[in-house]
């Protein structure tokens, strides 16, 4: 396997390329990129976080990695195929026709992280990643041993994309049209895009990132990709079982504005938070939903006050997760002890 290489984020950050072979969507060779935060002076805990980005995104949130490290987790992040570090010139940014294709890099990343760390892995995801991740976890949980047997201990979803925002006709008639166009003209761009409101809000807050990998007005949304997302939404709405406890962080309010103004800095300017609240119960297992007043779409790119609140809520949930995991382990041990001895093989 290729060795870890220095990452663009500088000291303490390395990256590892994960070759994925030929693209099932016909755009040549593809790969994903696993990033880790591992400062030289840090202790190496036996548990980790694996983070998945959203659409028009990649991993650059160093303060998030460093916060998890301070809480006793090693930190890893995955740039998915055709995204960020993983995108080649011939690739249509973020283009997939089936969200299940991402299982390949998710499972490889989880395998590597478990091999490196040895203990449990906490999964975290933002926006579209917050849809991709529970769909994968639901499939993983159906295998022998479930998600827990695969080493997953919990999931954190940061403003997950659980439904198509906008008027209701977009979710019925519009979805039918998306399904047809997504099959017939998958790489054609959906009209009416190029809104830079959210990007300008992030820049106004001083967040710095690669504009080639995360343009202010976003990458074009293609019909094939949107069809895959809508099929993912439908699967989520029928109910999943991710097999582990989940924390959902979201803004307290949404506001869609055609142009940037400072009020956008304190709302979700991308998704409808009411939809996140509505569909949160579809994940299965224990789900904790926390609205963070004044937060941006990426809760961890909020202004200082809401960002501090988001980290406080995260830390409280991590503390609860530790207690829950300990109690569940003890209950399992008691149940094993209470079982009568096996008589298999005895007359």
TrEMBL record:
Keyword Hydrolase tagged: yes
One example GO MF annotation: hydrolase activity
Keywords from the named record: Hydrolase
Keyword match Plastid: no
Gene3D superfamilies according to UniProt: alpha/beta hydrolase
SUPFAM superfamilies, alphabetized: alpha/beta-Hydrolases
Residues in Serine aminopeptidase S33 domain copies: 45-257
Protein name: Alpha/beta hydrolase
Species of the source: Rhodococcus chondri
Lineage: Bacteria, Bacillati, Actinomycetota, Actinomycetes, Mycobacteriales
């Amino acid at each position: 396997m290729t060795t870890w290489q220095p990452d663009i984020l500088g000291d303490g950050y390395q990256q590892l390329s994960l070759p994925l072979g030929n693209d099932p969507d016909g755009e040549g060779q593809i790969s994903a990129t696993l990033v880790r935060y591992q400062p030289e002076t840090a202790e190496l805990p036996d548990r980790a976080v694996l983070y998945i980005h959203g659409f028009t995104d990649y991993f650059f949130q160093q303060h998030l990695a460093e916060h998890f490290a301070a809480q006793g987790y090693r930190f890893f992040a995955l740039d998915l195929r055709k995204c960020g570090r993983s995108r080649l010139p011939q690739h249509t940014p973020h283009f997939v026709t089936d969200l299940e294709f991402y299982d390949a890099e998710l499972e490889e990343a989880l395998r590597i992280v478990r091999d490196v760390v040895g203990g449990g892995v906490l999964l975290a995801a933002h926006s579209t990643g917050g849809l991709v991740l529970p769909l994968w976890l639901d499939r993983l949980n159906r295998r022998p041993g479930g998600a827990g047997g695969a080493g997953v201990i919990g999931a954190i979803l940061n403003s997950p994309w659980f439904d198509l925002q906008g008027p209701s006709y977009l979710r019925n008639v519009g979805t039918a049209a998306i399904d047809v166009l997504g099959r017939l003209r998958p790489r054609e761009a959906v009209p009416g895009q190029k809104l830079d409101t959210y990007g300008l809000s992030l820049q106004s807050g001083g967040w710095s990132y690669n504009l080639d990998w995360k343009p202010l007005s976003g990458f074009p949304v293609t019909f094939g990709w949107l069809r895959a997302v809508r099929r993912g939404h439908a699967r989520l709405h029928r109910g999943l079982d991710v097999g582990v406890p989940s924390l959902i962080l979201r803004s307290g309010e949404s506001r869609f504005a055609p142009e940037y103004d400072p009020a956008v800095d304190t709302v979700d300017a991308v998704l409808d938070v009411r939809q996140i609240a509505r569909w949160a119960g579809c994940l299965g297992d224990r789900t904790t939903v926390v609205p963070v007043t004044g937060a941006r779409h990426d809760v961890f790119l909020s202004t200082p006050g809401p960002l501090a609140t988001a980290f406080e809520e995260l830390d409280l949930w991590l503390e609860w997760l530790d207690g829950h995991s300990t109690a569940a382990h003890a209950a399992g041990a008691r149940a094993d002890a209470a079982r009568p001895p096996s008589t298999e093989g005895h007359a």
